[in-house]
Amino acid sequence: MSNRTRHDVDVAVIGGGLAGVAAAIAAARNGATVALVQDRPVLGGNSSSEVRVWVCGATATGHHRFARETGIIGELYVENEYRNPLGNPYYWDLVVLDAVKAEPRITLLLNTHITEVRMHGDRISSVGGIVLGSEGEVTVAAHTFVDATGDGSVAARAGARTRLGREASAAFGEDLAPEEEDELTLGSTLLFYTRKESEPVPFVPPAFAIDLAATTIPESRVLRTGDNGADYWWIEWGGELDIVADNERIRDELWAVIYGIWDHIKNSGRFPDAENLTLEWVGSVPGKREYRRIIGAHTMTQEDVVSATRKADAIGFGGWSIDLHPSKGVYEPRSAAQQIYPSGTYDIPFGILRSIDVGNLLMAGRNVSATHVAFGSLRVMATCAVMGEAAGTAAALCAASDWTPAELHAAHIRTLQRRLTRQDAALIGVQDDDPANLALRARATATSELRWDELEEPDSSLLLADDTAFLLPRGQSGPVRVHLSSDEDASVSWTVHETLDGRTYFPAVRLDSGSIELPAGHVGWVSLLDELPAGGSPDTSTVVVLEATPGVRWGTSGQYLFGTVSMTRPVSAHVEEIDAHLLADRPDDVVRWGIKKLARVRLATRCEGAVAGLEAANVVGGYGRPYGGPRMWSSRPRRDLVAGDPEILTLEWEREVQASEVRVVFNDDVNAYVNNLHYVRSEHRIPPEIVADFDLEAFVDGHWRTLGTVRDNRRRHRTVAFEPVATARIRLVCHRTNGSDLVQVGQVRVY
Q1: Cα-based torsion angle of the residue sequence 706, 711, 713, 717 in order, rounded to the nearest 10 degrees
Q2: Taking residues 673-687, what's their average pLDDT?
Q3: Following CA atoms 231, 235, 241, 245 in sequence, which dihedral angle do they give, to the nearest 10 degrees?
Q4: Cα–Cα distance list, 728 to 439, 650, 651, 656 (Å)
Q5: For the packed helices 18-29 and 89-101, what is the interaxial angle rounded to 10 degrees?
Q6: What is the mean pLDDT of the chain?
Q7: Residues in contact with 141: Cβ distance below 8 Å, sequence separation at least 6, in sequence order
Q8: pLDDT tens-digit profile of 383-392?
């Protein structure tokens, strides 16, 4: 009996990790028919319940400010917070699977392993494979293909040139690369989970478990009984082998390491609190970090990451450190990683997503065109998903217009960028100029705009044990005051700085300095300076720094003000105490100025008038997320919205426009660090600033007509489609948030 099937689609995405998932969803939402082919029974790749790696990205586990990804991976993050507050890996599987199944244009082919790539000239015509478990054979033909396999296996079978291993330092001018090229890579990892029982649980190790005492692991790695899963990211091996060809050998060695570690924890006598612990789960699918990298129109290098130069063909952003691991993995006696952080987020160019050899092949994920060093930053999964959304969107555009990726790159890159902006993808500093967006020609007004004097007084305080700073969006007016208290006579030294640019958020360039004299027992507001210095670029932010002063406290409030950042810098800590993997000879101020302990805390600082960067005009300013400021609208504090007095945001045109769709971007606090398995737990299942209940209305024939009603919203990006209407005024009537007393909107786009 024949068990053969064929799928003819616009876009074929091979690989069902987060890069492939994002590519497939993006292509489908842009009108393409899509086949998503995955060789495992679950989606999510290294993030799935089979491997259980945390999804990390440009936030660099919370070091970068306003850097959490939006777009499709942003949707998955926020939905997972709601559905999966405890970080259950199986619930994460469901979040990802549900997102794919919600797109009717996607044909999902699980357990399908591609074994053949058929070519027509320099283009892929179809791919063929087998369905594991059913003895089926599958053919997928498409206009455009996306290799999201991670290993670059489709590209390799298609004859595309690839890179493997580490380039020599001189090849791309990278001082983090070795002097001589080699084929060493980052290794693979298996993880494990533990569970505490009500009685002692013995552990008899298998014969193949390593003797941990005969290795350097107890001295060079951190072992704790409370750790689980990706806490053990350093259980890594195989970088000196062929990660794919030797996958079985690597898995066996990683098993031996895990059971050796568990034997040590259970039976060495050094962990008495492990008596009631047992193993709940041990991985069996090695999580691969690195293999082939497909050569594209551009090769991303160390300089692209560290210097963060702007790219005309930017399709997304990254921010993870250049995170390089020793090829010996767990058996390396030195540190398990070496990390060099960029100062802020950096552009990812479209050129690294298209093969220069195969005419209709795009790539996304850890197989994109980059050196080994740059790949050390690009490889994390949220960044891979950003590239996936861009690749899928580009593939749909190519299929719809019969373009090749090269033609799109050469003549239609702004079309791609405008489409990504329209769908709230992860772009920073790329301003929307889409002629189709009617909102760009409108004037925005609101029933209220937030003022400094409407913010709550401080209800607690922070001891100035360390240098402490508060970042303000540029443009604040009037005198600057801070709320301080002092146990004794004290002199507080202060400085005012600006940031490096619109993508960085720590004090960099000093503008002014002085001191404040406080008498013993003082509690209250004190003047810092009459006006904030102008500084340079209008896209930079201003940072007020108070130096560590014994006995002095800076007032704080739990009323969060988006667009500001509170941070501290330890005055005496060595670099190892801040992050054990930093290089001492590199500044990495973005890490030294820590924000994690002060998340959603507002240091009591006050200017005059409106809070710059939160005016209603920002919603038609063309930016979907912060860039040198919050770039959104915020109302005054409100507790009474449901009582029939809503906050209203109105767009008005000089003459009537024809509209049939409005897209609203709410504030889901992209400064908050989250991940799929909750290495850090969020206090909110839904970002409180997201507007929960709203109506969309148009002024037609002398009265307001309802175009759409949304209740219990928990999404950042909402699209309201309606029958075409001619109007000169559209308004968003906001009745309720998800807990915040501030109504906030990032962008309103009208088509």
Answers
A1: -10
A2: 87
A3: -70
A4: 11, 10, 8, 4
A5: 30
A6: 95
A7: 6, 7, 8, 9, 12, 125, 126
A8: 999 999 999 9
Cα 681–687–693 angle (5° rounding)?
150
Band the pLDDT of 421: cuts 50, 70, 90. very high
Question: What Rg, from alpha-carbon coordinates, does the chain have?
Answer: 27
Find out whether 492 and 464 touch, Cβ atoms under 8 Å: yes
Please state at what angle helix 381-401 crosses helix 71-83, rounded to 10 degrees.
130
Nearest Cα to 728, choosing from 698, 695, 696, 697? 698
Ramachandran quadrant class, 712 (left: phi over 0; alpha: psi -120 to 50; beta: rest): left
pLDDT surpasses 90 at 586: no
Whole-model pTM: value is 0.97
Beta strands 236-237; 460-463: pairing state:
unpaired
pLDDT of residue 149: 98
Q: Residue 170 phi/psi, 5° resolution? A: -75, -20
pLDDT at 226: 85
Please report the pLDDT score of residue 469 as a whole number.
98
In 110-154 the beta strands, taken as DSSP E runs, fall at 112-120, 123-131, 136-147
| Continuous segment of H or E residues that includes residue 533 | none
- DSSP for residue 452: G
pLDDT tens digits, one per residue of 160-169? 999 999 999 9
Q: What is the dihedral of CA 26, 31, 32, 34, to 10 degrees?
A: 60
Phi/psi of residue 601, nearest 5 degrees: -105, 130
Find the length of the chain. Answer: 751
Amino acid letter for position 591: V
CA atoms within 13 A on the CB side of 103: 25
- Both tokens of residue 346? 């950096």
Cβ atoms < 10 Å from Cβ of 517:
11
Task: For residues 338 and 359, give the distance between their C-alpha atoms in angstroms, rounded to a whole number.
Answer: 37
The residue among 394 and 227 whose pLDDT is bigger is: 394
> Average pLDDT for residues 695-723, to the nearest whole number?
98
- At residue 655, the 3 state secondary structure works out as strand
413, 394 Cβ separation under 8 angstroms: no
Q: Judge whether residue 574 has pLDDT over 60.
A: no
pLDDT of 578 strictly over 50: no
- In b/e form, how buried is each residue of 274-289, taking b as 16+ CB within 10 angstroms? beebeeeeebebbbbb
